[in-house]
Amino acid sequence: MIAGYYTALERTLFFDHASDAHLKVWEANCRVLKRGRELLKPGASCAEIAKELNEMYEEENLLQYRTFGYGHSFGVLCHYYGREAGLELREDIDTVIEPNMVISMEPMVTIPEGMPGAGGYREHDILVMKEDGAENITNFPFGPEHNIIKG
Q: In whole angstroms, what separates CA 48 from the centre of its chain?
């Protein structure tokens, strides 16, 4: 086993082109990511964050395509070991965020095949909670302006 830390880097990517329908969903998901990062701070509850982000998806008629919560804690050895069920960013979790917690913000929607914008959209950042806010340690660009890969 290799000692150290592990994390994931998850970004929506398109090759060469994204249609207007794809861009609409992708940009909505990026807005949810940005707002979620703003909401992640000490004193906020997981449920409050999830509820506000749900409203954003609902405004875009995307809530029914959300597949799971908006983020979670992290373990020391890997993504799952040390992960706490009580620190999932979901509507049913009332845990209040505190300094020194490490939490992901990872909104995701999956649009079914055959529908405009079909596909999966996921942006994933990892944030370390500080006394006065959060530090995003992902530092990798996201969104259509950065992640449409030209061939």
A: 15
φ/ψ of 100, rounded to 5, equals 80, -5
pLDDT at 1: 46
Q: Is 110 helix (H, G, I), strand (E, B) or coil?
A: strand
Q: Which two tokens stand for residue 54?
A: 């749900």
Contact of 32 with 146, CB cutoff 8 Å:
no
| Alpha carbon distance 53, 31 (integer Å) | 10
Do 123 and 142 contact (CB within 8 A), yes or no?
yes
Whether pLDDT at 126 is above 90: yes
Distance, first Cα to last Cα, the chain: 37
Distance CA 11, CA 123 (A): 5
Between vectors from CA 120 to CA 22 and to CA 25, what angle results, nearest 5°?
A: 35
The pair of structure tokens assigned to 20 is 């207007």
CB 51 within 8 A of CB 39: no
pTM comes to 0.90
102 burial type by CB count under 10 A (0-12 exposed, 13-18 middle, 19+ buried): buried
Sheet holding 102-105, edge to edge: 102-105, 125-130, 133-136
The answer to whether the beta carbons of residues 83 and 75 sit under 8 Å apart is yes
